[in-house]
Amino acid sequence: xASKSKKFYVVWVGHNPGVYNSWDECQAQVKGFEGxxxxxxxxxxxxxxxxxxxxWDYLKxxxxxxxxxxxxxxxxxxxxxxxxxxxxxxxxxxxxCGGNPGIMEYQGVYTKNGRRIFYAGPFPDGTNNxxxxxxxxxxxxxxxxxxxxxxxxxxxxxxxVWVRNKHANTKLKPTNANAQLFELIQRAEKWLKTNTWNIxxxxxxxxxxxxxxxxxGRK
Length: 219
Fold this sequence. Notes:
By secondary structure, the protein is α/β, with parallel strands linked by helices. It folds into two domains: 1-61, Ribonuclease H1, N-terminal domain (Ribonuclease HI, Chain A, 3-Layer(aba) Sandwich); 89-201, 2-Layer Sandwich (Nucleotidyltransferase, domain 5), CATH 3.30.420. Helices cover 31% and strands 22% of the residues.
């Protein structure tokens, strides 16, 4: 009888996000954790790549009927019931920009109570996507320095992709006014390229949950 092939388990959202070598280890990280996100992979390199990427490239979004595997818990079977849920124990970030380009600022808050954790700005000649990118990296660096693995929510898919690619692919043109902003972009890109982290960066689903808690409320 052929031996069962070894699997590797990615936990994007759980007690301690990471890549695990056994189901028992994975289960310990997701059991009792509301909103846990995880999946099994057939080899380690695939699992590592998935963990560093956008989890929604590998998971079905909660609004769709899930495809279950034998390795998924009862939580996965109830995913359709959780389309209106988000992880309260998390950090939310947002940016505001008066024009494109324009005066930009960004901030991060605790999702569950809206308490501000950090704020930066205002910066002249900025864009919303640049602000979202800087806010995510700011949150990553802050959480890592405090040895915390709280998920980070952003409502900007563009900024999340930039973080995943470790490069701000902005069309913003450098000016004398935004020189400081471009210095921050370079510092953020350098941080992403020289650090590792076990912190999920997740898309805030405004359609389901309303405005992100970090929203500046200026729409």
